[in-house]
Amino acid sequence: MNSTKTNGFGVLTSDLALKIDEIIQTYESNSTRLVGILLDIQDIVPKQYIPREVATYVSERMNIPLSKVYDVISFYAALSDVPRADYVIQLCDSVVCKVTGNTILRDAITELLGIKEQEATADGKYWLEYTPCFGACDISPAMRINGKVFGHLTTQASVKAALDQYK
Amino acid sequence: MKNIKIKIDNIDLVVPEGTTILEAAKKININIPHLCYHPDQAIKANCRLCVVEVAGSKKLTPSCSSYVFEGMEVQTNTKKVRDMQKGILELILANHDQDCLKCLRNGNCELQALCQRFNISKTNLEDTVDALPLDDTNPCLVRDSAKCVKCNRCVDACQKVQEVHVLTHSHRSIHYNITPAYEMPLEETFCVFCGQCAAVCPVGAIVEKDDTAKVWDAIYDTGKHVIVQTAPAVRVALGDAFNLPKGSIVTGKMVAALRRLGFDQIFDTNFTADLTILEEGNELIKRVTEGGTLPMITSCSPGWINFIEGRYDHLLDHLSSCKSPQQMFGALSKSYYAEKTGIDPKNIYTVSIMPCTAKKFEAKRPEMVTNGVQEVDAVLTTRELARMIQSAGIDFTGLEEDQFDNPFGIGTGAGQIFGATGGVMEAALRTAYEVITGKGLPSLNFTEVRGLEGIKESTVHIDGLDLKVAVAHGLGNAKVLLKQIDKGESPYHFIEVMACPGGCIGGGGQPIKSTMDVKQKRIDAIYHIDEDLPLMKSHKNPDVMRLYDEYLGEPRGHKSHELLHTHYHSRGMKYNFSELMKQ
Ligand code: SF4
Ligand code: SF4
Ligand code: SF4
Ligand code: FES
Ligand code: FES
Question: Mean pLDDT across the stretch B46-75?
Fold first, then answer.
């Protein structure tokens, strides 16, 4: 039956594994800080997600069951179990941003890149998603690209200018 | 412990401190609706169905997680309570694939019973339910998340009891689900197919894979000689499905029912359990006297085999090389029995009735082949046998007792106690002691290895040797003993492991509602059968001895090796991280 199914690797390299070890060490292998550890790891995995082999690696290194790691990944919106893209664009879905018009912002992105939320562009470059408030209320409507915040995005031109920094 | 006076539905009662309202109500025959509550598990309090009104509190109180206090006054049946419970059930039904007629839990489903109680049904049947794909690609279990009520009982069984940690809750709000990591099908996880999840599921969201149709086909096929073996734990549990008192011994009725179903010969797995003792006992003696790998661990529980082959594959040398009694029977059915009866092994269809879902996996292992044919063709759980009997319209309780057929019809008490945790150990000791010392046993009963304690140990003095033994049931307990071995600290010579809590009597294929007290009743029944049997030691089984004389030669001889032993191997399911780091 399953006897010969040794699992191969697609994403995990020895280099990446070493970096993951470092991250885990930074957090002193503290299982209560699993979310932070996974967020840091996600940042250095191509396409910014936690594939099964990486989750399994973390589970073994930290001695936490894989099912628990997955529970955490699936619970937090900021963690993804499916490949996203090189550049992850996040829009805030909280009230303030909605009021200040981030649907216009969303439409601008859809027009410029041809993707809706939870979608990646065909070339795997951009991914669009909503997140809870990331504290840019004062400069809303705002978006984050790979963690960097861009504010006052009221025109399509301003959105394009921001996107153009990531190519 | 302090006693607390309370009133439930205006009935006065006194219960010990630390009792929940739900348990207190049960004592006065009030069954408060519940789904996530299970008497053997920790309180989860996630379904909210068990709410009651407590005087002085405006909010409804969940009764499964609230403890009684002095002077407490509880109402379980007010309009407010019932409206709430009805509302919750309607909500569950709104996202439930209410397909009762096609569901294996029809008539035995806690959700169905509750809906009946509240007289509600979903009428919008054409609505599609938002759910994960059906997981039915393994030979043992079917998971249908369209029927899951998210009570988390299976998660408790998989994580806390078995510590296999396959099932978890995942995501949140409307996407909240019960699944293995990355929504993998079970066979791609470390799942051992013990079925303990199915055994506690209140509904039809995890069930055994139904093989009854296959067996009916074989019975109807006139070209097939269909024989059946029944495991020791089935005869003390099957009666549950026919509303007999828990722990009823129904051996004779079971044989009669199997005969009526149309099986050509009805045999007893206790026979090959005795055979296992001779082979395994012999292996143990050899390892102890000739310096083999110790401790030696039993190999008759396929859930346990899947566990060690999956996660602890570096300890495989500790396993006895014996096949399980099921597979020994299968191998003999396609060799010795075929020769004796002159029937072509290809035309013999061997069915097992097992308390276990993992046995379905074991029967399909590619190496479990004798004379070019699969040793066991189909495995039915106790639940499936009950369904076949019901389906055939047999009035089980009215049946006259029948007897097993020869040549695999005699089992000793030692074979019978295989069904309970500690039984294999005790059976092995009964034989090993006499074989080594040549003397009769002072007492036949090794009571230290009996009972429901998680890990049991004992030391037996055999001719100057202090044989140290341990028994674990439930994989969480087995893990403790494995870790000892890993650290080089295991003091034992011989360990018995059964994957399921209580041993096979608590198997994942037994009738639903096998709670701890039911398991205890089954264990009592098993030792009762043992005491009533004329023979209690495997090496006194005359038919087993004849089998050695006529066919096998001697324990662990050439023929035995070929038919009764196997090689356990890694499931190869781990990522090879150390290999990766070498790159
Ligand atoms: S799980 Fe229960 S309610 Fe749902 S279809 Fe099956 S029997 Fe009916
Ligand atoms: S069969 Fe056993 S190991 Fe597999 S999911 Fe169910 S409880 Fe877990
Ligand atoms: S599969 Fe069954 S036991 Fe598990 S959460 Fe769903 S309903 Fe409960
Ligand atoms: S509300 Fe949008 S960033 Fe805070
Ligand atoms: S039974 Fe009490 S909350 Fe589920």
Answer: 97
Residue A7 near chain B (CB below 8 Å): yes
B362 included as an active-site residue? yes
The predicted structure's pLDDT at residue B463: 84
CA dist., res. B121 & res. B318, Å (int): 54
Q: CA of A91, closest CA in chain B: separation in Å?
A: 20
Quickly state the pLDDT bin for B126 (edges 50, 70, 90): low
The chain-wide mean pLDDT, for chain B, equals 95
Task: Average the pLDDT over B414-426 and give the result.
Answer: 96
Residues 6+ apart with CB under 8 A from B126: none
Looking at residue A7, its pLDDT comes to 58
Active site residue B457: no
Apex B383 CA angle, B221 and B112, nearest 5 = 120
- Does the distance separating the beta carbons of A13 and B575 come in below 8 Å? no
Q: Is A14 on the interface with B (CB under 8 A)?
A: yes
The pLDDT assigned to B127 comes to: 65
CATH architecture of B102-109+119-208: 2-Layer Sandwich (3.30)
| Radius of gyration of chain B, Cα coordinates, nearest whole angstrom | 25
Confidence band of B446 (pLDDT split at 50, 70, 90): confident
Residues 553-582 of B with CB under 8 A from A: 569-577, 580-582
Pocket test for ligand 3, best of B201, B207, B208, B513 (most atoms within 8 A of CB): B201
Check if the beta carbon of residue B140 is closer than 8 Å to that of residue B207.
no
Res B124 pLDDT > 70: no
Residues of chain A contacting B571 with CB distance shorter than 8 Å:
2-3, 5
**What pLDDT is stored for residue A8 in this prediction?**
65
Structure tokens at B285: 């003696």
Contact assessment for residue A54 and residue A45, using Cβ atoms and an 8 Å cutoff: yes
B560 belongs to the catalytic site: no
Q: Which residues pair with B381 in a beta bridge?
A: B354
pLDDT single digits (tens) B190-216: 999 999 999 999 999 999 999 999 999
Fold of B3-77: Ubiquitin-like (UB roll) (3.10.20)
pLDDT-derived band at A3 (thresholds 50, 70, 90) equals very low
**Boundaries of every domain in chain B:** 3-77, 102-109+119-208, 212-564
Is A69 within 8 Å of chain B by CB? yes
Concerning whether B367 is annotated as a catalytic residue, the answer is yes
CATH code 3.40.50.720 for B212-564: no
Name the band, by pLDDT with cuts 50, 70 and 90, for residue B503.
Answer: very high
Is the shortest distance between the CB of A136 and ligand 4 below 6 Å? yes
The CATH number given to A87-163 is 3.40.30.10
Nearest Cβ partner for B580 among A1, A14, A65: A14
Which of B359, B456, B521, B537 is an active site residue? Answer: B359
- Are the C-beta atoms of B254 and B230 separated by less than 8 Å? yes
Token digits of residue B545: 């001895």
The verdict on A43 touching B (C-beta cutoff 8 Å) is no
Q: How far apart are CA B182 and CA B184, in angstroms?
A: 5
Which positions in chain B touch A60 (Cβ < 8 Å)?
575, 577
